[in-house]
Amino acid sequence: MFAKGARLSDIPLKWIADEAVAHRLLVRRRAYREASALDGVDPAGAVHKMSRWWRLLGPGRRVVPEGANIHASVADRLAVDSRYARRLPRQYTVVDDDWRTAQPWPQPAATAAEDEELPVG
């Protein structure tokens, strides 16, 4: 959708892909490798402004509950922009410190072809 820019959406996409692989959901290796490629992704990059049409879907901000797990990329953003903290609760836990690193592929899929899906089970 955004041909250039910060690609902030790639960060949660990788987090979701990591969890899918860890829980042995059907994931194509090539798709995971592409989702894991975060070269040049800056968590402190500019947030894209959406058009007015998105307002039809409702308010654009979510409330983060107290004690929530916060992705480590948010801590990276806070290091550059302390104003971002006003969106966060007073207490939270930072998770996924190695978020820029692709996770190891589970052993059973090691013999799978490049585009095969992980077996469930």
Task: Annotate the secondary structure layout.
Blueprint lengths: L9 H13 L6 H8 L31 E4 H9 L11 E4 L26
Parallel strand pairs: 1-2
How does this structure look, described?
The protein has a domain at 10-41 and 61-111. The protein has 3 helices and 2 strands; from the N terminus they run ααβαβ. The chain is of the alpha+beta class and 121 residues long. The mean pLDDT is 80. The protein is globular.
Query: With helices defined by DSSP (H or I, 4 residues minimum), what is the helix count?
Result: 3
- The fraction of residues in strands falls at 5-15%
Strand order of the largest sheet: 1-2
- The overall strand count is 2
Sum up the overall morphology in one term.
Answer: globular
Oligomer: single chain
Poorly predicted ranges (pLDDT <50, ≥5 residues)?
Answer: none
Rg, Å, rounded: 17 Å
**Amount of helix:** 10-25%
SSE arrangement, N to C: HHEHE
Category by helix and strand content: alpha+beta
Taking the alpha carbons of the first and last residues, their distance comes to: 35 Å
Mean pLDDT: 80
Q: Outline the biggest β-sheet.
A: 2 strands, parallel
Short structural description:
With 121 residues, the protein is α+β, with helices and mostly antiparallel strands.
Keywords:
3 helices; 121 residues; 7% strand; alpha+beta
